[in-house]
Design a protein that fits this description.
With 252 residues, the chain is α+β, with helices and mostly antiparallel strands. The protein has ten helices and seven strands. The strands form two sheets. Strands 2-1-7-6-5 form a five-stranded antiparallel sheet, sandwiched between helices. Strands 3-4 form a two-stranded antiparallel sheet. The radius of gyration is 18 Å and the shape is globular.
Length: 252
Amino acid sequence: MKKRIILALIGICFSVVTGFAAPAPEKEIMSDLKGFHGSVGVFAKNLNTGKTLQFNQDAVFPTASTSKVIVALAVYKYLYPAAGSDQISEYEQDIRLMITVSDNDSFNDLLDKLTNRDALDKVVKDFRLRQTRIHNEEAFKKYKYHSVTTPYEMAKVFEKVYGEKYLEKEKSQRFKSYLANTIFHDEIPRYMETPVLHKVGELDAILCDVGVIQDGYDPVLISFYTNTSDHEYASNFIATQSAKIYNVLRHK
């Protein structure tokens, strides 16, 4: 009960759409990020004004389940064109489950269909990602994880997805609807009273969330990666700092 009361009070403090919460100064956010107990990297951007906030944005982190966004894009871009209607229906079902509930069976099913992983490498090249590797043996040798990225590079992917600049319109809008309707609300969306298109990831000591907050004025993209043994601490930190970042970057 005590924990719920504390979280409720924090939620009031970080209500970001009513106008009652004063924007946290950028230097306060930077101080918070520097004080994180573990490793943290953030890249955030107002997609209308271009204003950014960055901290360790080029640091390499395991992707955890944010790699599922790349897998979905690879299927849409490189498997759909040669697929029949029944196969497309199966792909679509797997993509929906993989994004909305982070279903690992659907994820593995799609990976099996991406037989030699060339399509994953093509997506990485399409976005000109220098440090991102998805289900890659070289990444495993170097980082002990098969899939790695940086906050900045995953933000690049989300910006193009949100702007419908990678897939054709119909696929883009369908994919965005999945991102907007996930079952996960504890990180970036926690203190938001406005839609968030996002994909969360959790693995070992990794907790991350990448998404776009839509308030009807300025979409704000936040790519947030953490590495710490305390996932509850990391979750609270991502939620709180995302609210502060949104208030700094949003239209005033």
